[in-house]
Specification:
This protein is an all-alpha fold and 426 residues long. It contains 19 helices and no strands. The radius of gyration is 21 Å and the shape is globular.
């Protein structure tokens, strides 16, 4: 990492920190813990999966409504770090509190998970916006992709520790119940997240901003309204957001509901944890590879590759029957999930006017989060109507197809950076 600056390395290290939450809370241990708690309380498999989907939808709706408003305010000098800090501590605190909720209180688990999800996703809105402050347009793809790569690799460490404690408790090797072992994993996540976020707080600062003015909240709403009125000036940017709205929906839904889906297929918790661990290991270098290939083939073409792979994933998921099938599916997802997220982030960052990055990343957030409402709801309702989780996953194909169709109409960012900046000044 010698080729990167201190600011770039500190920014990328937050991916390393936060990804522990993504794998342990969003994807692996918590969903399994919650599913077991719901099952013990008499909730059916299909309904517990649906309730998790509804919870994710609620959390994303809350942040989707706040994103553009807070983002516009955060464009003022000194505000970006304050908002990042608030959501960061909300996420870390709620994650730690999960460890102290009784395992039979499945509804309380979902409520606390909602706060953790809002905190994590909220901090990421401002973290993503800091990309324009820490690096140049030429290095954005590589820095963004390296951040995701570090996140996937780094998250495997607390994940391994958590899996080891859970597996050893299941085998009776250590005198802990599986419930207690899972709660320890929640505490490990909070500690890891908090510890490795320190460089972000010390070394990353807001360089691009709007000068403070009286009544910042009122004026932020005015700027937000002006952006809506002048939306034609940002056609490439908002066209990309529309494409992103659809394809990232499928990506996020598959990531957050994969363990619940695997459980419904009858795959054991131990097998799911091992599969998810290997997925993280594989996803890391592939995210970096996407960044390197984007410099040769452009970010847009690599986004096409990722979306096409996800279309195949949804089709293949419909025919899943065995644990080996789930392994194949997971490895296919691993090749593209980091790359498609990293390049989407850098693609968008190249399009936005830098001093208004929070405002536009607020839109990036609202498009992504409203999409994240639609996906889980689609899977949840389809699963309940058909009684088959595979049908729900298959239904996501249409989102990827719409996304790639709209993306084909978006120009390459490099040709429009100057035009967008000029439009904003006008």
């Amino acid at each position: 990492m010698k080729s990167f600056t201190k600011e770039e390395n500190s920014w990328m290290l937050y991916d390393w920190a936060n990804s522990a939450y993504s794998i342990i809370i969003s994807t692996a241990v918590f969903p399994l813990f919650y599913k077991a708690a719901a099952t013990d309380s008499g909730v059916s498999a299909a309904n517990s999966t649906a309730y998790l989907g509804y919870t994710i939808a609620i959390a994303t709706f809350i942040l989707a409504m706040l994103g553009p408003i807070l983002g516009t305010i955060a464009d003022y000098q000194g505000y970006k770090k304050k908002f990042f800090t608030f959501f960061f501590f909300l996420g870390v605190a709620a994650t730690a509190i999960l460890a102290f909720i009784p395992s039979d209180q499945w509804l309380m688990l979902l409520i606390c998970y909602t706060f953790a999800a809002v905190g994590s996703a909220g901090a990421n809105v401002f973290y993503d916006a800091f990309l324009t402050d820490v690096t140049t347009d030429e290095k954005m793809n590589r820095v963004s992709a390296r951040g995701f790569g570090l996140g996937y690799i780094g998250s495997t460490i607390p994940f391994i520790i958590s899996i080891a404690i859970i597996v050893l408790s299941q085998g009776g090797t250590i005198p802990l119940s599986t419930t207690t072992a899972s709660k320890i994993a929640f505490l490990i996540t909070a500690l890891w997240w908090g510890l490795f976020a320190i460089p972000m707080f010390k070394n990353v600062h807001q360089l691009h901003y709007i000068e403070p003015e009286p009544k910042p909240v009122v004026n932020s709403f005015k700027r937000l309204g002006k952006t809506f009125k002048e939306i034609k000036k940002y056609r490439p940017l908002f066209l990309f957001l529309l494409a992103y709205f659809f394809y990232i929906d499928g990506v996020g839904t598959i990531i957050t509901m994969s363990t619940a889906y695997g459980t419904d297929l009858g795959i054991s918790s131990t097998s799911l944890l091992i599969i998810l661990f290997v997925t993280q290991v594989v996803a890391g270098p592939f995210a970096v590879l996407y960044g390197r290939l984007s410099e040769k083939f452009t970010g847009k073409k690599m986004l096409y590759v990722g979306i096409i792979i996800y279309i195949f994933v949804c089709i293949y998921a419909y025919f899943l029957e065995t644990t080996m099938d789930f392994w194949i599916l997971a490895m296919l997802v691993a090749t593209s999930q980091g790359g498609i997220q990293a390049l989407s982030r850098s693609y968008f960052a190249k399009l936005v006017p830098k001093k208004n990055s929070n405002e536009f990343f607020g839109f990036y957030n609202i498009f992504g989060k409203f999409a994240s409402i639609m996906g889980p709801l689609l899977v949840a309702m389809t699963a309940q109507l058909t009684g088959n989780s595979s049908t729900g996953v298959f239904s996501l194909v249409i989102l990827f197809i719409i996304g790639i169709a709209i993306l084909s109409r978006v120009p390459e960012p490099v040709h429009h950076i100057a035009a967008v900046d000029t439009a904003k000044k006008a």
